[in-house]
From TrEMBL:
GO terms for cellular component: cytoplasm. Pfam families: HpcH_HpaI. It is an enzyme of class 4 (lyase). Belongs to the HpcH/HpaI aldolase family. This is 4-hydroxy-2-oxo-heptane-1,7-dioate aldolase. The lineage of its organism: Bacteria, Pseudomonadati, Pseudomonadota, Alphaproteobacteria, Rhodobacterales. Its EC number is 4.1.2.52. The gene is hpcH_2.
Length: 267
């Protein structure tokens, strides 16, 4: 089976940079897959896309060196299994709050006897290879999201569930829960996510986190996170376009870009 290179990076103590796709497009998925990111996550929770678009995006990511991950909308075993069948090498599941939910989630990601994933590997065979079914359990990753107050309280019980490959923190939902909003400072949720990071690290379970961009991602790496998501595709697209426009407007205000001249020339 095709190796899961992010498992190897994590085992070697290396950081994983994870792209995040909210735009439903195979073309932009392929572009982000070629960005140098080690993994790329198709976001079916908050992304503007559905299963049929996610399938095309997973196919596009397959043409790149990045490992294909998905974030599912919720703890929905049939949906999780279908996305694994579509070739996802890891599933990030939001709002996991208890050991019971964790067990249900991990079971959906594993074929029997470790779990209850149903047989029907479909595209997993095309992307993973002919031995997909035999090797899937040790290759695909089950990644619960920790982003509720209950999950923070019960983190040791959650981490005790066998088969968790990583935990992923949703800092914004955690801020809603613990700080009453997403503005800064986020005193309580920052302390909580640091405690989760330490609890996971102590057990050798890697911890990932969503970040606003590269600057925050660098700080999170220094804090001890093993996987960072430096903002989503839409944020990068709009940020860089705004910067380009701002630069052109600034040049025009200095009188050296000729925006008006371009307009009157009819281009
Ligand atoms: C959160 O910050 O809550 C997230 O889920 C990020 O994707
Ligand atoms: Mg969230």
């Amino acid at each position: 089976m095709r190796a899961n290179t992010i498992r190897k990076r994590l085992a070697d103590g290396k950081t994983v940079i994870n792209g995040w796709l909210s735009i439903g497009s195979g073309y932009s998925a392929e572009g982000i897959g070629h960005s140098g990111a080690h993994a790329v996550t198709v976001d079916l929770q908050h992304g503007m896309l559905d299963f049929s678009m996610a399938l095309h995006m997973l196919q596009a990511i397959s043409a790149t060196p990045a490992m294909p991950l998905v974030r599912v909308p919720s703890l929905d075993p049939p949906k999780i299994m279908q996305l694994l069948d579509a070739g996802a090498y890891g599933v990030i599941c939001p709002m996991i709050s208890s050991p019971e939910e964790t067990r249900e989630f991990v079971a959906a990601c594993r074929y029997p006897p470790q779990g209850n994933r149903s047989f029907g590997p479909s595209r997993g065979l095309l992307y993973g290879g002919g031995d997909y079914v035999a090797k899937a359990n040790e290759t695909v990753m089950a990644i619960p999201m920790i982003e509720t107050a209950e999950a923070v309280e019960r983190i040791d019980e959650i981490l005790d569930v066998p088969g968790i490959d990583m935990v992923y923190i949703g800092p914004n939902d955690l801020a809603f829960e613990l700080d009453g909003g997403v503005s800064v400072p986020r005193t309580k949720s920052e302390a909580a996510l640091d405690a989760v990071l330490k609890a996971a690290t102590k057990r050798g379970i890697p911890c990932g986190i969503f970040c606003s961009g590269a600057e925050e991602a660098n700080k999170r790496i220094a804090q001890g996170f093993c996987l960072v998501t430096p903002g989503n595709d839409f944020a990068h697209l709009t940020r860089s376009m705004k910067e380009a426009v701002a630069q052109l407007v600034a040049e025009d205000e200095r009188g050296d870009a000729g925006l008006e001249r371009t307009a009157t020339n009819g281009y």
